[in-house]
Amino acid sequence: MIHMYDFTSGYTVPYVKLTNSCHHCREENYILVNKEQYELWTDGGLLIQHAFPNLEAWERDIILMGFHPKCWDEVFAKKDVCPCCQSNPCLESLDAANNHGAHS
């Protein structure tokens, strides 16, 4: 456990250092989280976004899934995205097929 000074409250607050390795690049990640929030998440059954509202979504993703934002994009990036509608499969193509038209 790590104790850090909280400038908002003026008190020293206990923090927990959560570590894991990125599943893609194997680089070690760590995030410091408030011990009370951590216990609410692990022991209290709160969803991570409710237990850690102060963390960004990508920080919570590192805790849950172990991927850096860059690695997440590399692994889960959309492949063959249509330039006209930014979707896969092309939404306009599907609409055209349903209306017996052609994709332009």
The overall pLDDT average reads: 77
Number of helices: 5
- Output the structural class: alpha+beta
How far is the N terminus from the C terminus? Answer: 60 Å
Report on this model:
The longest helix is centred in the middle third of the chain and has 9 residues, at 57-65. With 104 residues, the protein is an alpha+beta fold. The chain starts with a strand and ends in a 6-residue tail after the last helix. The model is unreliable at 100-104 (pLDDT under 50). The protein is elongated. The protein has 5 helices and 3 strands; from the N terminus they run E-E-E-H-H-H-H-H. The protein folds into 2 domains: 2-67, no CATH class; 78-104, no CATH class. Helices cover 36% and strands 22% of the residues. The protein has helices spanning 35-42, 48-51, 57-65, 69-76, 91-98, and strands at 2-6, 11-21, 28-34.
How are the secondary structure elements laid out?
Layout: E1 2-6, E2 11-21, E3 28-34, H1 35-42, H2 48-51, H3 57-65, H4 69-76, H5 91-98
Antiparallel strand pairs: 1-2, 2-3
